[in-house]
Amino acid sequence: MPELSLNDWLAYGTLAGLFLIFIISYFIARAKAVQNKASSKENTRLDAILHRSSERGEGVLVGTSEGAGAQVGSLAGVAGLQTQAHVFRHSLHSDLPPKTVAGDGNLVALSQQLNAGIYHSADMPELYKLDSSGLAGIGSYAYMAGLIPELSRSNLSALLMQGELSPELILALDAAKRHDLDAIMASSSLSGQAAAHFIDPQSALGEETFMSQSTRPREKAGLKATLICLKIARGLIVAGLLVAILLQLLGVLP
Amino acid sequence: MKKIVPLIVATVTALFVMAGIFFRESLGDWLSVVLNWAIVLSSVALLVMLARLLFTHIAYIARGRQGFIYSLVAVSAFLITLIAGFLFGVDNPTFLKWIAGIMRPLESALLGLVAIVLASLSLKFFYQRGWNALTISFAVSALVFLFLGLGVLQAIDYPPLQRVIQAVEGLPMIGARGLLIGVTLGAILMGMRVLIGAERPYDD
To answer: For the whole model, what pTM was predicted?
Structure first.
Protein backbone atom coordinates (compact mmCIF):
# COMPACT_ATOMS: atom_id res chain seq x y z
CA MET A 1 0.00 0.00 0.00
CA PRO A 2 1.43 3.45 -0.90
CA GLU A 3 2.41 5.94 1.82
CA LEU A 4 -0.49 8.30 2.43
CA SER A 5 -0.23 11.86 3.71
CA LEU A 6 -2.78 13.54 6.00
CA ASN A 7 -4.30 15.22 2.91
CA ASP A 8 -4.66 11.83 1.18
CA TRP A 9 -6.36 10.33 4.25
CA LEU A 10 -8.72 13.32 4.43
CA ALA A 11 -9.57 13.00 0.73
CA TYR A 12 -10.11 9.23 0.88
CA GLY A 13 -12.10 9.61 4.13
CA THR A 14 -14.36 12.21 2.50
CA LEU A 15 -14.84 9.95 -0.53
CA ALA A 16 -15.64 6.94 1.65
CA GLY A 17 -18.11 9.06 3.66
CA LEU A 18 -19.75 10.28 0.45
CA PHE A 19 -19.96 6.72 -0.83
CA LEU A 20 -21.70 5.61 2.39
CA ILE A 21 -24.17 8.51 2.21
CA PHE A 22 -24.73 7.72 -1.47
CA ILE A 23 -25.50 4.04 -0.77
CA ILE A 24 -27.86 4.87 2.13
CA SER A 25 -29.74 7.59 0.23
CA TYR A 26 -29.89 5.37 -2.88
CA PHE A 27 -31.58 2.52 -1.03
CA ILE A 28 -33.97 4.91 0.80
CA ALA A 29 -34.93 6.54 -2.55
CA ARG A 30 -35.30 3.08 -4.12
CA ALA A 31 -37.57 1.88 -1.32
CA LYS A 32 -39.69 5.04 -1.60
CA ALA A 33 -39.92 4.57 -5.37
CA VAL A 34 -41.16 1.00 -4.91
CA GLN A 35 -43.77 2.12 -2.32
CA ASN A 36 -44.91 5.06 -4.39
CA LYS A 37 -44.96 3.66 -7.92
CA ALA A 38 -47.27 6.29 -9.39
CA SER A 39 -44.66 9.04 -9.38
CA SER A 40 -45.57 12.54 -10.44
CA LYS A 41 -44.84 13.33 -14.04
CA GLU A 42 -41.85 15.61 -14.54
CA ASN A 43 -41.98 18.41 -17.04
CA THR A 44 -38.41 19.03 -18.06
CA ARG A 45 -37.00 20.65 -21.16
CA LEU A 46 -36.01 17.26 -22.56
CA ASP A 47 -39.50 15.84 -22.00
CA ALA A 48 -41.05 18.88 -23.70
CA ILE A 49 -38.79 18.29 -26.72
CA LEU A 50 -39.65 14.58 -26.81
CA HIS A 51 -43.40 15.29 -26.61
CA ARG A 52 -43.14 17.87 -29.38
CA SER A 53 -41.14 15.59 -31.66
CA SER A 54 -43.59 12.70 -31.05
CA GLU A 55 -46.60 14.89 -31.81
CA ARG A 56 -45.08 16.21 -35.01
CA GLY A 57 -43.72 12.83 -36.06
CA GLU A 58 -40.19 14.20 -36.16
CA GLY A 59 -36.89 12.65 -35.12
CA VAL A 60 -34.25 13.48 -32.53
CA LEU A 61 -30.50 13.27 -33.02
CA VAL A 62 -28.41 12.34 -29.97
CA GLY A 63 -24.67 12.99 -29.88
CA THR A 64 -22.49 11.49 -27.15
CA SER A 65 -18.77 11.91 -26.42
CA GLU A 66 -16.43 12.65 -29.24
CA GLY A 67 -13.99 9.98 -28.08
CA ALA A 68 -11.14 12.03 -26.71
CA GLY A 69 -10.28 9.02 -24.55
CA ALA A 70 -10.29 11.06 -21.35
CA GLN A 71 -11.32 9.21 -18.18
CA VAL A 72 -13.82 11.85 -17.08
CA GLY A 73 -15.01 12.07 -20.68
CA SER A 74 -15.88 8.40 -20.83
CA LEU A 75 -18.05 8.78 -17.71
CA ALA A 76 -19.79 11.75 -19.32
CA GLY A 77 -20.31 9.50 -22.34
CA VAL A 78 -22.01 6.97 -20.05
CA ALA A 79 -24.33 9.75 -18.82
CA GLY A 80 -25.01 10.55 -22.48
CA LEU A 81 -25.92 6.90 -23.08
CA GLN A 82 -28.50 7.08 -20.30
CA THR A 83 -30.05 10.18 -21.89
CA GLN A 84 -30.04 8.37 -25.21
CA ALA A 85 -31.84 5.40 -23.60
CA HIS A 86 -34.44 7.81 -22.16
CA VAL A 87 -34.98 9.34 -25.61
CA PHE A 88 -35.36 5.94 -27.28
CA ARG A 89 -37.76 4.66 -24.58
CA HIS A 90 -40.00 7.68 -25.24
CA SER A 91 -39.80 7.45 -29.01
CA LEU A 92 -40.58 3.78 -29.58
CA HIS A 93 -43.69 4.63 -31.60
CA SER A 94 -42.32 7.71 -33.33
CA ASP A 95 -42.72 7.94 -37.09
CA LEU A 96 -39.06 8.82 -37.38
CA PRO A 97 -36.95 6.95 -34.81
CA PRO A 98 -34.13 8.79 -33.02
CA LYS A 99 -30.52 8.32 -34.01
CA THR A 100 -27.33 8.34 -31.93
CA VAL A 101 -23.87 9.28 -33.14
CA ALA A 102 -20.69 8.93 -31.10
CA GLY A 103 -16.99 9.44 -31.61
CA ASP A 104 -15.86 6.31 -29.84
CA GLY A 105 -16.18 2.64 -30.79
CA ASN A 106 -17.04 1.56 -27.24
CA LEU A 107 -19.83 4.10 -26.95
CA VAL A 108 -21.35 3.06 -30.29
CA ALA A 109 -21.23 -0.61 -29.30
CA LEU A 110 -22.83 0.14 -25.91
CA SER A 111 -25.40 2.39 -27.55
CA GLN A 112 -26.41 -0.38 -30.02
CA GLN A 113 -26.66 -2.87 -27.16
CA LEU A 114 -28.82 -0.49 -25.12
CA ASN A 115 -31.12 0.27 -28.05
CA ALA A 116 -31.55 -3.41 -28.87
CA GLY A 117 -32.43 -4.01 -25.19
CA ILE A 118 -34.97 -1.17 -25.18
CA TYR A 119 -36.85 -2.48 -28.22
CA HIS A 120 -36.63 -6.03 -26.88
CA SER A 121 -38.01 -4.98 -23.45
CA ALA A 122 -40.89 -3.21 -25.21
CA ASP A 123 -41.71 -6.44 -27.10
CA MET A 124 -40.99 -4.87 -30.46
CA PRO A 125 -37.53 -6.17 -31.45
CA GLU A 126 -38.51 -6.02 -35.13
CA LEU A 127 -38.44 -2.19 -34.96
CA TYR A 128 -34.79 -2.10 -33.86
CA LYS A 129 -32.38 -0.98 -36.55
CA LEU A 130 -28.63 -1.44 -36.27
CA ASP A 131 -28.00 1.97 -37.82
CA SER A 132 -29.88 3.71 -34.98
CA SER A 133 -26.37 4.23 -33.55
CA GLY A 134 -23.32 5.02 -35.60
CA LEU A 135 -19.75 6.20 -35.50
CA ALA A 136 -19.48 9.85 -36.59
CA GLY A 137 -15.70 10.14 -36.57
CA ILE A 138 -12.80 9.85 -34.18
CA GLY A 139 -11.46 13.11 -32.76
CA SER A 140 -13.27 16.41 -32.32
CA TYR A 141 -13.16 17.66 -35.92
CA ALA A 142 -13.92 14.30 -37.53
CA TYR A 143 -16.80 13.91 -35.07
CA MET A 144 -18.23 17.29 -36.03
CA ALA A 145 -17.71 16.53 -39.72
CA GLY A 146 -19.74 13.35 -39.25
CA LEU A 147 -22.42 14.90 -37.04
CA ILE A 148 -23.24 18.12 -38.91
CA PRO A 149 -24.51 16.45 -42.15
CA GLU A 150 -26.93 14.42 -39.97
CA LEU A 151 -28.59 17.72 -38.98
CA SER A 152 -29.72 18.17 -42.59
CA ARG A 153 -31.96 15.11 -42.33
CA SER A 154 -35.57 16.00 -43.07
CA ASN A 155 -38.12 15.90 -40.24
CA LEU A 156 -35.56 16.38 -37.48
CA SER A 157 -36.73 18.38 -34.48
CA ALA A 158 -33.92 18.38 -31.92
CA LEU A 159 -30.24 17.85 -31.27
CA LEU A 160 -29.21 16.54 -27.84
CA MET A 161 -25.52 16.35 -27.02
CA GLN A 162 -24.11 14.98 -23.79
CA GLY A 163 -20.57 13.79 -23.13
CA GLU A 164 -16.98 14.94 -23.51
CA LEU A 165 -17.35 17.62 -26.16
CA SER A 166 -14.74 20.21 -27.11
CA PRO A 167 -15.62 23.84 -28.06
CA GLU A 168 -16.00 22.71 -31.67
CA LEU A 169 -19.50 21.66 -30.61
CA ILE A 170 -20.41 25.27 -31.33
CA LEU A 171 -20.40 24.36 -35.04
CA ALA A 172 -23.08 21.72 -34.45
CA LEU A 173 -25.05 24.04 -32.20
CA ASP A 174 -24.91 26.83 -34.79
CA ALA A 175 -25.99 24.42 -37.54
CA ALA A 176 -28.88 23.23 -35.32
CA LYS A 177 -30.03 26.82 -34.78
CA ARG A 178 -29.93 27.46 -38.52
CA HIS A 179 -32.10 24.38 -39.10
CA ASP A 180 -34.53 25.64 -36.39
CA LEU A 181 -33.87 22.64 -34.18
CA ASP A 182 -34.19 22.56 -30.41
CA ALA A 183 -30.81 21.91 -28.85
CA ILE A 184 -29.63 20.71 -25.44
CA MET A 185 -25.92 20.66 -24.65
CA ALA A 186 -24.02 19.07 -21.76
CA SER A 187 -20.25 18.84 -22.05
CA SER A 188 -17.83 17.67 -19.37
CA SER A 189 -15.05 19.75 -20.95
CA LEU A 190 -14.72 23.22 -19.41
CA SER A 191 -14.09 24.94 -22.73
CA GLY A 192 -17.02 23.01 -24.21
CA GLN A 193 -19.27 24.19 -21.37
CA ALA A 194 -18.18 27.79 -21.92
CA ALA A 195 -18.82 27.58 -25.67
CA ALA A 196 -22.25 25.96 -25.21
CA HIS A 197 -23.27 28.46 -22.53
CA PHE A 198 -22.44 31.21 -24.98
CA ILE A 199 -25.27 30.13 -27.30
CA ASP A 200 -27.61 28.47 -24.86
CA PRO A 201 -27.82 29.91 -21.32
CA GLN A 202 -29.60 26.73 -20.21
CA SER A 203 -26.75 24.42 -21.22
CA ALA A 204 -25.28 22.26 -18.46
CA LEU A 205 -22.53 23.66 -16.24
CA GLY A 206 -20.19 21.75 -13.91
CA GLU A 207 -21.73 18.61 -12.40
CA GLU A 208 -24.99 19.02 -14.35
CA THR A 209 -23.31 17.24 -17.26
CA PHE A 210 -23.53 13.96 -15.37
CA MET A 211 -27.25 14.24 -14.64
CA SER A 212 -29.10 12.05 -17.08
CA GLN A 213 -32.86 11.95 -17.01
CA SER A 214 -34.83 8.77 -16.46
CA THR A 215 -38.27 7.57 -15.47
CA ARG A 216 -37.00 4.20 -14.25
CA PRO A 217 -37.03 3.71 -10.43
CA ARG A 218 -33.44 2.43 -10.28
CA GLU A 219 -31.96 5.35 -12.23
CA LYS A 220 -34.22 7.91 -10.53
CA ALA A 221 -33.08 6.66 -7.11
CA GLY A 222 -29.46 6.98 -8.32
CA LEU A 223 -30.11 10.57 -9.37
CA LYS A 224 -31.78 11.45 -6.07
CA ALA A 225 -28.84 9.97 -4.15
CA THR A 226 -26.46 11.95 -6.40
CA LEU A 227 -28.30 15.21 -5.64
CA ILE A 228 -28.15 14.57 -1.87
CA CYS A 229 -24.43 13.77 -2.04
CA LEU A 230 -23.80 16.87 -4.17
CA LYS A 231 -25.50 19.07 -1.60
CA ILE A 232 -23.38 17.57 1.18
CA ALA A 233 -20.18 17.82 -0.87
CA ARG A 234 -20.91 21.46 -1.73
CA GLY A 235 -21.53 22.18 1.98
CA LEU A 236 -18.24 20.50 2.90
CA ILE A 237 -16.33 22.47 0.27
CA VAL A 238 -17.84 25.78 1.37
CA ALA A 239 -17.15 24.95 5.05
CA GLY A 240 -13.59 23.91 4.18
CA LEU A 241 -12.95 27.16 2.30
CA LEU A 242 -14.39 29.26 5.13
CA VAL A 243 -12.28 27.42 7.72
CA ALA A 244 -9.17 27.87 5.54
CA ILE A 245 -9.87 31.64 5.20
CA LEU A 246 -10.43 31.92 8.96
CA LEU A 247 -7.24 30.03 9.76
CA GLN A 248 -5.27 32.19 7.36
CA LEU A 249 -6.73 35.37 8.89
CA LEU A 250 -5.78 34.10 12.35
CA GLY A 251 -2.27 33.37 11.13
CA VAL A 252 -2.48 29.59 11.67
CA LEU A 253 -2.02 28.88 7.96
CA PRO A 254 0.87 30.51 6.08
CA MET B 1 -29.51 -14.19 -14.61
CA LYS B 2 -29.06 -12.33 -17.91
CA LYS B 3 -29.25 -9.02 -15.98
CA ILE B 4 -27.22 -10.08 -12.94
CA VAL B 5 -24.09 -11.45 -14.65
CA PRO B 6 -23.11 -8.20 -16.47
CA LEU B 7 -23.76 -6.25 -13.26
CA ILE B 8 -21.50 -8.56 -11.23
CA VAL B 9 -18.76 -8.44 -13.92
CA ALA B 10 -18.93 -4.60 -14.06
CA THR B 11 -18.91 -4.14 -10.28
CA VAL B 12 -16.17 -6.71 -9.61
CA THR B 13 -13.99 -5.24 -12.38
CA ALA B 14 -14.44 -1.69 -11.02
CA LEU B 15 -13.62 -2.81 -7.45
CA PHE B 16 -10.61 -4.79 -8.68
CA VAL B 17 -9.22 -1.79 -10.63
CA MET B 18 -9.68 0.42 -7.54
CA ALA B 19 -8.00 -2.17 -5.31
CA GLY B 20 -5.19 -2.47 -7.86
CA ILE B 21 -4.42 1.23 -7.48
CA PHE B 22 -4.04 0.89 -3.69
CA PHE B 23 -2.26 -2.47 -3.62
CA ARG B 24 -0.10 -1.96 -6.68
CA GLU B 25 2.70 -4.20 -5.38
CA SER B 26 0.58 -7.30 -4.98
CA LEU B 27 -2.06 -6.69 -7.66
CA GLY B 28 -0.02 -4.67 -10.18
CA ASP B 29 0.57 -7.58 -12.60
CA TRP B 30 -3.09 -8.61 -12.57
CA LEU B 31 -4.15 -5.00 -13.03
CA SER B 32 -2.05 -4.79 -16.22
CA VAL B 33 -3.75 -7.95 -17.51
CA VAL B 34 -7.24 -6.51 -16.87
CA LEU B 35 -6.30 -3.16 -18.43
CA ASN B 36 -4.86 -4.95 -21.47
CA TRP B 37 -8.15 -6.82 -21.88
CA ALA B 38 -9.96 -3.47 -21.80
CA ILE B 39 -7.60 -2.05 -24.44
CA VAL B 40 -8.03 -5.11 -26.69
CA LEU B 41 -11.83 -5.04 -26.29
CA SER B 42 -12.10 -1.32 -27.04
CA SER B 43 -9.81 -1.71 -30.07
CA VAL B 44 -12.01 -4.52 -31.39
CA ALA B 45 -15.12 -2.37 -30.78
CA LEU B 46 -13.53 0.48 -32.72
CA LEU B 47 -12.57 -1.86 -35.57
CA VAL B 48 -16.10 -3.26 -35.77
CA MET B 49 -17.62 0.23 -35.80
CA LEU B 50 -15.18 1.41 -38.47
CA ALA B 51 -16.13 -1.59 -40.62
CA ARG B 52 -19.80 -0.77 -40.03
CA LEU B 53 -19.20 2.87 -41.06
CA LEU B 54 -17.41 1.69 -44.20
CA PHE B 55 -20.21 -0.69 -45.17
CA THR B 56 -22.83 2.03 -44.57
CA HIS B 57 -21.01 4.32 -47.00
CA ILE B 58 -20.60 1.48 -49.52
CA ALA B 59 -24.36 0.89 -49.27
CA TYR B 60 -25.00 4.62 -49.92
CA ILE B 61 -22.82 4.43 -53.06
CA ALA B 62 -24.52 1.24 -54.26
CA ARG B 63 -27.98 2.77 -53.80
CA GLY B 64 -26.91 6.06 -55.39
CA ARG B 65 -28.29 7.98 -52.42
CA GLN B 66 -28.30 11.78 -52.67
CA GLY B 67 -24.82 13.04 -51.79
CA PHE B 68 -23.22 9.64 -52.41
CA ILE B 69 -20.19 11.42 -53.87
CA TYR B 70 -19.11 12.25 -50.30
CA SER B 71 -19.40 8.58 -49.41
CA LEU B 72 -17.21 7.80 -52.40
CA VAL B 73 -14.57 10.24 -51.13
CA ALA B 74 -14.80 8.77 -47.61
CA VAL B 75 -14.44 5.16 -48.79
CA SER B 76 -11.59 6.02 -51.20
CA ALA B 77 -9.70 7.97 -48.52
CA PHE B 78 -10.19 5.15 -46.01
CA LEU B 79 -8.98 2.45 -48.42
CA ILE B 80 -5.99 4.46 -49.68
CA THR B 81 -4.90 5.24 -46.09
CA LEU B 82 -5.41 1.63 -45.01
CA ILE B 83 -3.42 0.19 -47.93
CA ALA B 84 -0.65 2.79 -47.56
CA GLY B 85 -0.48 2.05 -43.82
CA PHE B 86 -0.11 -1.67 -44.47
CA LEU B 87 2.49 -1.16 -47.22
CA PHE B 88 4.71 1.47 -45.59
CA GLY B 89 3.97 0.94 -41.90
CA VAL B 90 2.29 3.43 -39.57
CA ASP B 91 5.67 4.82 -38.34
CA ASN B 92 6.96 5.58 -41.83
CA PRO B 93 7.89 9.33 -41.93
CA THR B 94 6.64 9.76 -45.53
CA PHE B 95 3.31 8.16 -44.63
CA LEU B 96 2.97 10.34 -41.53
CA LYS B 97 3.89 13.47 -43.51
CA TRP B 98 1.30 12.55 -46.14
CA ILE B 99 -1.42 12.06 -43.51
CA ALA B 100 -0.47 15.29 -41.72
CA GLY B 101 -0.46 17.13 -45.06
CA ILE B 102 -4.13 16.31 -45.49
CA MET B 103 -5.31 16.44 -41.89
CA ARG B 104 -3.68 19.71 -40.80
CA PRO B 105 -5.14 21.98 -43.51
CA LEU B 106 -8.58 20.41 -42.94
CA GLU B 107 -8.38 20.89 -39.18
CA SER B 108 -7.02 24.42 -39.58
CA ALA B 109 -9.93 25.26 -41.90
CA LEU B 110 -12.41 23.95 -39.29
CA LEU B 111 -10.60 25.85 -36.55
CA GLY B 112 -10.93 29.01 -38.65
CA LEU B 113 -14.63 28.27 -39.06
CA VAL B 114 -14.99 27.88 -35.27
CA ALA B 115 -13.32 31.29 -34.82
CA ILE B 116 -15.67 32.93 -37.35
CA VAL B 117 -18.76 31.30 -35.80
CA LEU B 118 -17.63 32.40 -32.32
CA ALA B 119 -17.05 35.95 -33.52
CA SER B 120 -20.47 36.15 -35.17
CA LEU B 121 -22.13 34.61 -32.12
CA SER B 122 -20.47 37.13 -29.82
CA LEU B 123 -22.16 39.89 -31.83
CA LYS B 124 -25.49 38.05 -31.70
CA PHE B 125 -24.96 37.66 -27.95
CA PHE B 126 -25.41 41.42 -27.41
CA TYR B 127 -28.19 41.67 -29.96
CA GLN B 128 -30.25 38.87 -28.36
CA ARG B 129 -29.59 39.48 -24.67
CA GLY B 130 -29.23 43.27 -24.63
CA TRP B 131 -27.04 45.18 -22.24
CA ASN B 132 -27.03 43.58 -18.81
CA ALA B 133 -24.47 42.60 -16.16
CA LEU B 134 -23.58 39.37 -18.01
CA THR B 135 -23.10 40.91 -21.45
CA ILE B 136 -21.16 43.91 -20.08
CA SER B 137 -18.83 41.71 -18.01
CA PHE B 138 -18.36 39.48 -21.08
CA ALA B 139 -17.49 42.48 -23.26
CA VAL B 140 -15.09 43.96 -20.70
CA SER B 141 -13.31 40.65 -20.03
CA ALA B 142 -13.06 39.86 -23.77
CA LEU B 143 -11.51 43.27 -24.47
CA VAL B 144 -9.15 43.06 -21.47
CA PHE B 145 -7.88 39.60 -22.42
CA LEU B 146 -7.57 40.47 -26.10
CA PHE B 147 -5.46 43.47 -25.09
CA LEU B 148 -3.40 41.40 -22.66
CA GLY B 149 -2.88 38.85 -25.42
CA LEU B 150 -1.10 41.49 -27.49
CA GLY B 151 1.71 41.48 -24.92
CA VAL B 152 2.13 45.28 -24.97
CA LEU B 153 1.59 45.73 -21.23
CA GLN B 154 3.85 42.78 -20.40
CA ALA B 155 6.71 44.59 -22.18
CA ILE B 156 6.58 47.51 -19.71
CA ASP B 157 9.17 46.98 -16.98
CA TYR B 158 7.18 48.17 -13.99
CA PRO B 159 6.86 45.50 -11.22
CA PRO B 160 3.50 46.69 -9.71
CA LEU B 161 1.91 46.59 -13.20
CA GLN B 162 3.27 43.09 -13.78
CA ARG B 163 1.73 41.97 -10.48
CA VAL B 164 -1.65 43.40 -11.55
CA ILE B 165 -1.38 41.64 -14.94
CA GLN B 166 -0.51 38.39 -13.19
CA ALA B 167 -3.54 38.74 -10.89
CA VAL B 168 -5.88 39.53 -13.82
CA GLU B 169 -4.52 36.60 -15.85
CA GLY B 170 -5.25 34.32 -12.92
CA LEU B 171 -8.96 35.25 -12.83
CA PRO B 172 -10.15 32.76 -15.50
CA MET B 173 -8.35 30.01 -13.59
CA ILE B 174 -10.44 30.77 -10.47
CA GLY B 175 -13.69 30.39 -12.40
CA ALA B 176 -12.38 27.27 -14.14
CA ARG B 177 -11.49 25.68 -10.80
CA GLY B 178 -15.05 26.17 -9.57
CA LEU B 179 -16.43 24.40 -12.64
CA LEU B 180 -13.72 21.73 -12.44
CA ILE B 181 -14.69 20.89 -8.84
CA GLY B 182 -18.29 20.48 -10.03
CA VAL B 183 -17.26 18.27 -12.98
CA THR B 184 -15.07 16.12 -10.71
CA LEU B 185 -17.85 15.71 -8.15
CA GLY B 186 -20.29 14.78 -10.92
CA ALA B 187 -17.82 12.25 -12.34
CA ILE B 188 -17.20 10.67 -8.91
CA LEU B 189 -20.93 10.29 -8.27
CA MET B 190 -21.50 8.96 -11.79
CA GLY B 191 -18.79 6.36 -11.06
CA MET B 192 -20.61 5.43 -7.83
CA ARG B 193 -23.89 5.04 -9.74
CA VAL B 194 -22.24 2.67 -12.22
CA LEU B 195 -20.42 0.83 -9.41
CA ILE B 196 -23.59 -0.06 -7.52
CA GLY B 197 -25.55 -0.77 -10.69
CA ALA B 198 -27.91 2.21 -10.49
CA GLU B 199 -26.79 3.11 -14.02
CA ARG B 200 -26.13 0.25 -16.42
CA PRO B 201 -24.76 1.53 -19.71
CA TYR B 202 -24.35 -2.08 -20.87
CA ASP B 203 -27.94 -3.19 -20.31
CA ASP B 204 -31.50 -1.87 -20.47
So the answer is: 0.86
